[in-house]
Amino acid sequence: xxxxxxxxxxxxxxxxxxxxxxxxxxxxxxxxxxxxxxxxxxxxxxxxxxxxxxxxxxxxxxxxxxxxxxxxxxxxxxxxxxxxxxxxxxxxxxxxxxxxxxxxxxxxxxxxxxxxxxxxxxxxxxxxxxxxxxxxxxxxxxxxxxxxxxxxxxxxxxxxxxxxxxxxxxxxxxxxxxxxxxxxxxxxxxxxxxxxxxxxxxxxxxxxxxxxxxxxxxxxxxxxxxxxx
Length: 229
What we know:
Blueprint: H1 3-23, E1 32-33, H2 35-42, H3 46-59, E2 62-65, E3 69-72, H4 77-98, H5 104-122, H6 126-140, H7 147-168, H8 174-194, H9 198-227
């Protein structure tokens, strides 16, 4: 294997594992990610670890703090507003560009992803559910010839996943309600896209993203009030 390709593959593997560990709470908000310790854990040099941490910083999952280095980013109402407002700007535009070009294979993929989401919901598998959710959205936009916007939205969906997992992992039972609602809304989105109704699909998508944003803001603000003595 080309050494450069091997290095990039190693960095990507470490990036995937660190991202998953942050998303599932193994590394909670505020946790310090020491490069030497991670390099020892992965049995690699610090170089691919450092590159993976820089990528996580670009995704908003990690922040570099003076005297501490890489630290898992805190959950933030400001970031929820920023991420989801950007999604509301970009995703309807992508959907509008994609719907007229979607083909039978695209709808077959959407149907398969929806079936996987139903299964993940029934199993309360948050890790799998979050990935399917992102894959479903990206599949809806796949035919939009806007590669830069697609790249940005992919990153925004990854940022959204962390907040969504926190919301859906509550112990009051509202998480499963949220998952079930999302399953229903995704089916409606696919149906509108299949019917070629661009205006209705984009309006529905905007409402879908806004509803999730509002739910997350309420949940995070409620959690912050509980944590305040």
